[in-house]
Amino acid sequence: DGGITQSPKYLFRKEGQNVTLSCEQNLNHDAMYWYRQDPGQGLRLIYYSQIVNDFQKGDIAEGYSVSREKKESFPLTVTSAQKNPTAFYLCASSISRGTYNEQFFGPGTRLTVL
Amino acid sequence: AQTVTQSQPEMSVQEAETVTLSCTYDTSESDYYLFWYKQPPSRQMILVIRQEAYKQQNATENRFSVNFQKAAKSFSLKISDSQLGDAAMYFCAYIEYTGANSKLTFGKGITLSVRP
């Protein structure tokens, strides 16, 4: 089955540690996205990538980093510089970036900072 | 910047009844898309329905339909014959095509509960 996988489902981190969230898709999509979801906030865009080896900052990129070395993979690193990292993180992909393409979402990762 | 407003944080509907979820947006563009996404307790985001701004006809998908009022910048979702499985958080979203800078903007969501 084609789809998007995110791992782990739950992640715990101590303050001061970097942590990497995995996102993999086998839909052959060019574009991939990372969103953060907080209670009462909706989804906010962290980073996006239109093509391999290219990515752009979204609205709340500070304290996060990404890489796009393979078309299928778009990992997100939450660094110690992110002041309030506890949240639900969603990865998405689309055929290409633009208006006409539906974004498909993964099941999400819940990150908790202890 | 474009904004999407969902002013009702929570709504409730009796099973088999009809409910309408409201959404307004702000834009100066004439070409854009609007979406409703559903997020059930599993937290998997699912696209429910989408509307192209240049189409006057309201989109429908089985029990789901929209009332798109372009001049009023309003985009409401009607759920007919509500079912227990419709209980979820619903997000309204907007995207305009501005080339490389196009992005999906979400409202804050509304939690829908369905009473048996």
Shape of chain A: globular
Report the total helices of chain A.
Answer: 0
Level of helix content of chain B?
A: under 10%
Biggest sheet overview of chain A: 7 strands, mixed
Give the CA-based shape of chain B: globular
Number of helices of chain B: 0
What does this structure look like?
The complex is a heterodimer of chains A (114) and B (116). Chain A is mainly β and 114 residues long. Chain A is built from no helices and eleven strands. In chain A, the strands form two sheets. In chain A, strands 2, 4, 5, 6, 9, 10 and 11 form a seven-stranded mixed sheet that branches. Chain A is globular. Chain A starts with a strand and ends with a strand. Chain B is globular. Chain B has strands at residues 3-5, 10-14, 19-21, 24-26, 32-39, 46-52, 60-61, 64-69, 74-79, 88-96, 104-106, 110-115. The model of chain B has no long low-confidence stretch (mean pLDDT 92). In chain B, a hairpin with a 7-residue loop joins strand 10 and strand 11. In chain B, strands 2, 5, 6, 10, 11 and 12 form a six-stranded mixed sheet that branches. Chain B has a four-stranded antiparallel sheet with strand order 3-9-8-7, with no helix packed on it. A two-stranded antiparallel sheet of chain B has the order 1-4. The interface between A and B is medium-sized, with 23 and 24 residues.
Summarize the structure.
The complex is a heterodimer of chains A (114) and B (116). Chain A has 114 residues and is an all-beta fold. Chain A has strands at 4-7, 10-13, 19-25, 31-38, 42-51, 54-57, 64-66, 76-78, 87-94, 104-105, 109-113.
Q: What does the secondary structure layout of this molecule look like, with pairings?
A:
The complex is a heterodimer of chains A (114) and B (116).
Chain A: E1 4-7, E2 10-13, E3 19-25, E4 31-38, E5 42-51, E6 54-57, E7 64-66, E8 76-78, E9 87-94, E10 104-105, E11 109-113
Parallel strand pairs in A: 2-11
Antiparallel strand pairs in A: 1-3, 3-8, 4-5, 4-9, 5-6, 7-8, 9-10, 9-11
Chain B: E1 3-5, E2 10-14, E3 19-21, E4 24-26, E5 32-39, E6 46-52, E7 60-61, E8 64-69, E9 74-79, E10 88-96, E11 104-106, E12 110-115
Parallel strand pairs in B: 2-12
Antiparallel strand pairs in B: 1-4, 3-9, 5-6, 5-10, 7-8, 8-9, 10-11, 10-12
